[in-house]
Amino acid sequence: MSVKKIPLEVLFGDPELNQVQVSPDGRSLAFVAPWEGVKNLWVQDLETGEKRRLTADRGRGVMGYSWLPSGLLVYVQDKDGDENWRIYAVDPAGGEPRLLTPGEGVQAQILATHPDFPDEMLVLLNDRDPALHDVWRLNARSGERVRVVENPGFVGFLADERLEVRLAHKSTDDGGAELYLLQEGAWKPFMRWGLDDSLSTWPIELLGDTLYMSSSIGRDTAALVAVDLETGAERVLAEDPSYDLLGEQGFLFHPRAAAPEAVAVMRDRLGWIVLDEGLKPDFARLGELEGDVYVTGRDLANRVWTLREERDAASPRYWLYDRKTGELSLIGEAIPALAEYTLAPMQTVRYPALDGLEIEAYLTLPPGREPRGLPAVIVPHGGPWHRDAWGFDPIAQWLANRGYAVLQPNFRGSTGYGKAHLNAGNKEWGRAMQDDLTAGVRWLVEQGIVDPRRVAIMGGSYGGYATLAGLAFTPELYAAGVDIVGPSNLFTLLETIPPYWKPMVALFHTRMGHPERDAGLLRAVSPFFHAENIRAPLLIGQGANDPRVKRSESLQIVAALREKGKPVEYVEYPDEGHGFARPENRIDFFRRAEAFLERHLGH
Question: Which of 20, 321, 399, 428 lies 20 to 30 Å from 137, alpha-carbon distance?
Answer without folding.
Answer: 20
